[in-house]
Design goal:
One of its GO terms (molecular function) is DNA binding. This is Helix-turn-helix transcriptional regulator. Residues 34-88 form the HTH cro/C1-type domain. This protein is mainly alpha-helical. It contains 6 helices and no strands. It has one domain (3-80): lambda repressor-like DNA-binding domains (434 Repressor (Amino-terminal Domain)), CATH 1.10.260. Helix 4 (45-52) packs across helix 5 and helix 4 packs across helix 6. The longest helix is centred in the middle third of the chain and has 16 residues, at 25-40. 12% of the residues are buried.
């Protein structure tokens, strides 16, 4: 186990850290889904950007969570990667 992983496990015991980490889970999930779609399409960020008619740096910012994408941007990303965009709302217990 890496030192970072060990620290993360330790910090998750702290309620404040865990709450902040959990709050970012949705953003991590979106970033992961975008990167997975691009990887499954065997495409580079530049190739996705070209199909989206945008810049590679914008695709990088989308994938890193640095920008909040619009539904239109997500649709264009999905189309560029040959993916289907689905959005769901789930009840929290």
């Amino acid at each position: 186990m890496t030192k970072a992983t060990e620290l993360h496990k330790k910090w998750l015991q702290d309620e404040t850290y865990k709450a902040e980490y959990d709050a970012l889970a949705e953003e991590f999930s979106l970033s992961s889904a975008l990167i997975s779609a691009r990887s499954a399409a065997n495409m580079t960020q530049s190739e996705v950007a070209e199909k989206m008619a945008t810049s590679q740096s914008y695709v990088a910012r989308l994938e890193s969570g640095a920008v909040k994408p619009t539904i239109d941007a997500l649709k264009r990303y999905a189309t560029a990667t040959g993916s289907r965009l689905t959005i769901s709302l789930e009840h929290r217990p």
